[in-house]
Structure formats: structure tokens, C-alpha cells
Write a structure and sequence with these properties.
Length: 365
């Protein structure tokens, strides 16, 4: 054992050093000493400007491709090791040792990269602070007014958007990537933290699998890509892309990224994006209204929607019911644990705080 440790001491030193560095940086970002805010504005932008820019021209999700290769290769390697340990023990042990050393090198690198491109940014100032919004308790009537304001915007653009044979929004011939990036850049003129370069968003080839995990989008902290589920209803897609692009500007908290996506779409001037942003924003606001104001207020708001919007909501509800499985439950539990581990103590319920941001932005107008 001593000879083994001595022979591979560089690997062990790297593993210990990288792991300690990753945890130290996250700990430092939670100490509220200004480190996380400095890092988010001065250091983090390097990653989307370099790695993100490098990955952008590649027409598929590099993250999905690499992840698929690793999963398939890992399973194949484990089978080969098991076979060799029975038939050729020495060869099997050498292969197992090589795999162990590879993991010992790779896992700390993954932890460190995750800290540098994601975890530290959880400690930055909130978007409400950066934008000058006042977050406070709101009366049910104010929430109801927000819902009707969104309904008015949805109804106004419903007649301007292309629809499919079911009467739902379709983005089949829409320059989605160009328009969503333009919407984010436009919002950046008002909020400087969102200005600058955006890599191209990437549709996931195995989007059907993402639906089984109840995911509409996924930010890759390793390839710095904005990946999205191209299989889900179209009205959710543009909003999701802007959500993932917000992560690429260092806004990692889910409620904040969701609010930024809503704001970018709503202010884009593009009927398809306005519809997508307001529909998703209304979904959050109506759920909050149902909990706070009861079924009657909720039904009244829903009843005032255009037929296009009602159809989209019905089709979306039916679509996601197909994926209410144990896999989805596990995915939700993992996501909940991850959020709580990163200082979002409400877990998946933190998505609901987006409504507070929507109300604060409305008051600021």
C-alpha cells in the first residue's frame, strides 16, 4: 500500500488539493465578505467568454454528448473489469486500478469546476438588490392585479403568434436562438449584469429523456452551455432558453433566473417571446393566487384568458402528466437536495419566490 501511495502521490496530492480548494471557495462565498459578489462580476464572466464561446459554434450539446459517452463507456468498462477479474485477475486488477486513479483525478476536477462556474455565485448579491427592487409582503389584490395585467398582455399577442393544428403556439419557423439572445441583450441595456456576449443555446437530442426527469432546461457548468428540452410544449421553450442564458451571466438561483427570463421575454417586443414569458410568469402568479386567494379568484383569472392560452395550458398539463413517474420523483428529490445544499433553503419551493420579484418589478414601474 505504501508503495502504491508513493508511486501515485501526485494523483493523491491533486485530489486532496482540488477538493479542499473547491470546498474552501464555496465556504468563502457564504461568509458574506464580498468575495462572491467580486467573483461573480470580475472572474466568472471569463468562463462564458472563453469556454462558452468555444462551444457555441458546435451545433449540438457538447455536455450531452460527453455525458452519453461517459455513461456508456463507464458501463462498458465496469463489465470488462468484472469479466477480466474472473478470467484474467491480474489484467482485471490493473484495469480497476487505472479506473480508480482516473476517478481520483476527475472527481476533484469536477467539484472544482462546479464551484468555479456555479456554486460560488449562489453567494452573490440578489438580483433584487442589483436592480433596486423592494421585496415585501403583498396583498392578494396586488397579486390578482398582476395576474390580470399578464392576462391582458397574453391576450393582446395571442392573435399575433403562429399556431399549430391544435391551436397552440408553434416555433417551427421562428429564429428562436437569435431572438432569445437578442432579448437577453436588450434586457442588458437596462441591467448591466446581463449585457455582453451570449453563446448559442443548444437543444438536447434526448429531450424526451429530459421530460422524464421533469426538466425543461439545464445549464452545463462544465461546458458552459445553455441546454434546453426541445420536446416540451413550445410556449415553455423560449422562456426556458432565456432562463438558462441567465445562468450563463452568473445568476444561478432558480427564482432569479426565472424572473430574468420572464422580464427578457416580456420586454422583447417579439409576440412569440412576450407570449412565452407572460404565460410562464402567469403560471407562477396564478398558482400563488390559488394558494393565497382561493379557487374563485384563480378561476376568474383563468376564464379571462384567450382560447389560444387556455389550449396551451391544457396541452401542457396533459403533456407533463405523461411523465409523472418514479424517475420524475427521484429527479425532483435530487434537485431539491442540490438547491438546499447551495443555500436555497426552500429547495424547489424557491421557484415560488419569483412571484415576489414580479410584484416588486411591477411596483417599480
Amino acid at each position: 500500500m505504501k508503495n502504491y501511495l508513493k508511486k501515485h502521490k501526485k494523483v493523491f496530492f491533486w485530489a486532496a488539493g482540488a477538493t479542499l480548494a473547491a470546498f474552501f471557495l464555496v465556504w468563502l462565498s457564504r461568509r458574506d465578505l464580498g468575495f462572491a459578489q467580486w467573483y461573480a462580476t470580475a472572474v466568472f464572466p471569463i468562463f462564458p467568454s472563453t469556454i462558452g464561446r468555444l462551444m457555441s459554434p458546435i451545433p449540438f450539446s457538447v455536455y450531452e454528448f460527453v455525458l452519453s459517452i461517459l455513461i456508456l463507456g463507464g458501463v462498458g468498462l465496469l463489465i470488462a473489469i468484472a469479466f477480466l477479474l474472473v478470467r484474467r485477475p491480474k489484467t482485471g486488477k490493473r484495469l480497476a486500478s487505472g479506473l480508480f486513479l482516473t476517478l481520483l483525478t476527475a472527481v476533484p476536477a469536477v467539484l472544482l469546476m462546479l464551484s468555479l462556474t456555479t456554486s460560488i455565485n449562489y453567494g452573490r448579491d440578489t438580483f433584487a438588490e442589483a436592480a433596486g427592487y423592494e421585496l415585501r409582503d403583498s396583498a392578494v389584490e396586488e397579486l390578482e392585479s398582476l395576474c390580470y395585467e399578464l392576462v391582458d398582455q397574453i391576450n393582446e399577442v395571442s392573435g399575433q403568434i403562429p399556431t399549430d393544428q391544435m391551436g397552440c403556439l408553434t416555433l417551427r419557423d421562428y429564429p428562436l436562438h437569435q431572438k432569445t439572445k437578442a432579448a437577453m441583450q436588450n434586457l442588458g441595456t437596462e441591467h448591466p449584469t446581463l449585457s455582453g456576449y451570449y453563446p448559442d443555446p443548444k437543444p438536447v437530442t434526448f429531450s424526451w429523456g429530459m421530460s422524464h426527469l421533469r426538466l425543461t432546461g439545464m445549464y452545463s457548468p462544465f461546458t458552459v452551455e445553455a441546454n434546453y428540452n426541445a420536446h416540451c410544449p413550445d410556449y415553455e421553450i423560449a422562456y426556458t432558453i432565456c432562463h438558462e442564458l441567465a445562468h450563463l451571466k452568473g445568476w444561478i438561483r432558480e427564482d432569479e433566473a426565472g424572473f430574468i427570463a420572464y422580464l427578457a421575454c416580456r420586454q422583447s417586443g417579439e409576440p412569440e417571446l412576450v407570449y412565452s414569458g407572460c404565460m410562464n410568469g402567469l403560471s407562477y402568479a396564478m398558482n400563488a393566487l390559488y394558494r393565497a386567494g382561493g379557487r374563485d379568484r384563480y378561476n376568474a383569472v383563468y376564464g379571462s384568458l384567450s382560447e389560444t392560452a387556455k389550449t396551451d395550458f391544457r396541452v401542457s398539463s396533459a403533456y407533463w402528466r405523461n411523465f409523472e413517474t418514479k424517475v420524475a420523483e427521484v429527479s425532483n428529490a435530487v434537485n431539491d437536495g442540490y438547491l438546499k445544499a447551495n443555500a436555497q433553503q426552500d429547495g424547489v419551493q424557491s421557484y415560488g419566490r419569483m412571484v415576489d420579484l414580479m410584484l416588486a418589478e411591477r411596483r417599480s414601474r
